[in-house]
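One chain is below:
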Amino acid sequence: ISLLRNTRIGCFGHNFNGITSAGFDLSVLRRELGTEVYSIDGSELIARMKALSAKDDVYQEAAAMVEQKICGCLGEKKDDIIRMTAALLAYGREYGWQAIDLRCHTEFSQTFGLAACLPLSVLGDQILCSCEADVPVVLTQVLLHYLSGGKNSTYVDIRTIEEEGMKVGACGFAPCNLC
């Protein structure tokens, strides 16, 4: 609980609250646990992405991260992936966030034409990342992170348990170092 008192989470897009049956009151979370969720409209992220110059240090850093962690051709989306990675990295540093939560559908995937899976996977090695602006899920990830002594965490749906391991699925992203 003492770690949660200093936790800051950046959340882009409408807070979805996953498949919970009721809304999640962020003011109670702040008041009772001290965890702060910064809610930022997705359009602000897109504006920040567009404002970046390829010469900016954070753009160059993100480009190196994408190049190192993502193999294969990214095609015409490479610049958008780098820009989203850079903008999220900059926001995280600016606000001192321990986690980033981003609502991909439909704000980014359909409206902007870029799913956030790859940028979140690239950043997931440095900062906890979650998708769909699902506050209960990102809080669970934060708790797992703290309980594991600071190791990376993610979430998956267990599909099949077999003798040699498990088959799992997720919405589409995982930190690159867990792949």
